[in-house]
Give the backbone structure.
Amino acid sequence: MGPINCFLIDYYFLKHLFFNAQFSIFNYFWDCNITYLPNNFQTFKQNFMAPLVLGNKEYPIIRNIIFDLGGVIMNIDYNLTLEAFKKIGFVDFNKMYSFLNQSKLFDGYDKGLVSPEEFRQGLRDVAQLNVCDDEINLAWNAMLIDIPEDRIHLLENLKNHFRTYLLSNTNEIHLDYFFNYVNRTFKIEDFSSLFHKAYYSCRVQMRKPDAEIFLKVINENNLKPSETLFIDDYLLNIESAEKLGIQCYYLQKEEFLTSLFAYYLK
């Protein structure tokens, strides 16, 4: 087939081609000597092929974004959980957390290998306290603060420009609270629908920073690591993803998604 010198093609058709996995047809069109296209094609080309700039860092080609949940999308404060456990009798929850972390209770719970019932009983056994399920759940969920509404709008907009994914270390008690919160606050029945696909550690029995969970997301969705951006607020997770060739942005406490992606809120 010879070079195409002139053709008319719809902007939205081009956009559809861009989001197909192989992009072979799209790339052919892109390299052709195009003499007529809609007026907004140049805007399309600039928006989708220009480097993505976040903070002081530039990413040449990003087609996929993987988001962490807590500390990135949802505001959290671990100190609120520490204080809440103190109020129900867990005098030194920090010390107990370190002990239980070594015993793999928290790791197993995040991976879905420990049930909510076993998790709560493990806390009771170590603290030697007879605390009811609801009290433990309330204290455990105290760290989950809120999601500003503009972050929801941002996720909706970004999904139209990138392939977006959620990758969260979480557990069933947090998920139950979180899904109810999102439904109650934003009338969103399925939070996962804000992404092309969502991965929760307790549902896939893997967790960050283990390489296997990053590889699962990459392989299942045929993503190129070099074209994939991972955003997290925990440095160990960032370092693990970088070793796999994934582009990363380490979100600091004073930074917010809506500021980094302000262009996509317009």
About this structure: Residues 11-45 form one domain.
